[in-house]
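hiii so um. not sure if this is the right channel but i have a protein structure encoded as tokens and i wanna go backwards to a sequence. like what aa goes where. can anyone help
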């Protein structure tokens, strides 16, 4: 039975998801916006994460105000744009902050885009940079193929206010963020941010954090 359960677990297909890593670099040390997932969540409860969530069908239909720069390994051009749109939408829902300009998201994105539609604003995808991607281990019963986008805090507007999904939502200095209860993927992304702002990372492509034989593997 245990072998059968493991085999079934390996058949779980990763769901597309995206996160927005927002960096305030105005001080001596970069600060990152993060919050704690509440204890009742099925996926990584109590862990600190960046704002984000799964890709919804409407994210592929809503229109941005500016064009996303070409991001290799994030999927097709349409998929990469949809993931970027999801990161902006989820960030607004979880933090109250907007990465937008005047624009029209259109009428096909569904109710998740209604606040943008009624305000005459649309995501400013030109302010995003591809940072990393990660795939949950095969044995996990809940799996994601997550893409991490990065932007500057100065690009966002609005008042920081949690929706209840993320607790202890705040700007954490990078050194403090690395001491928070985070999963290995989040730690990897934080270290990527640290390397970029210290001038130590010069990757040829967006790195992929995955697993082989249950051990972390970084490509790129």
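sure thing!! here u go:
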């Amino acid at each position: 039975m245990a072998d059968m359960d493991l085999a079934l677990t390996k058949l779980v297909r990763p769901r597309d998801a995206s996160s927005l890593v927002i960096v305030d670099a105005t001080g001596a040390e970069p600060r990152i916006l993060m919050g704690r997932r509440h204890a009742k969540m099925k996926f990584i409860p109590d862990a600190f994460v960046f704002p984000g969530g799964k890709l919804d069908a409407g994210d592929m239909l809503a229109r941005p105000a500016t064009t996303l720069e070409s991001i290799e390994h994030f999927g097709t051009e349409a998929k990469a744009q949809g993931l970027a749109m999801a990161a902006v939408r989820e960030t607004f829902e979880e933090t109250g902050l907007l990465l937008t300009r005047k624009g029209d998201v259109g009428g096909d994105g569904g109710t998740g885009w209604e606040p943008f539609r009624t305000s005459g604003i649309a995501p400013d995808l030109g302010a995003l940079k591809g940072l990393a991607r990660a795939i949950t281990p095969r044995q996990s019963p809940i799996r994601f193929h997550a893409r991490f986008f990065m932007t500057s805090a100065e690009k966002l507007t609005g008042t920081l206010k949690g929706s209840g999904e993320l607790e202890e939502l705040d700007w954490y200095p990078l050194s403090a963020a690395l001491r928070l209860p985070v999963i290995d993927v989040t730690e990897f992304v934080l270290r990527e941010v640290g390397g970029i702002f210290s001038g130590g990372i010069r990757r040829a492509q967006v790195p992929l954090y995955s697993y082989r034989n249950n051990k972390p593997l970084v490509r790129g």
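oh and The mean pLDDT is 91.
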